[in-house]
Amino acid sequence: MASSINHHASDQEFTVSQNGYVGELAYSKPQQGIIDFTHTYVDEGLRGQGVAEELARAGLTYAKEQQLKVRTSCEFMDSFVRRHPEYNELLDGDR
Question: How does DSSP assign 35-91, residue by residue?
Answer without folding.
Answer: EEEEEEEE-GGGTTTTHHHHHHHHHHHHHHHTT-EEEE-SHHHHHHHHH-GGGGGGB
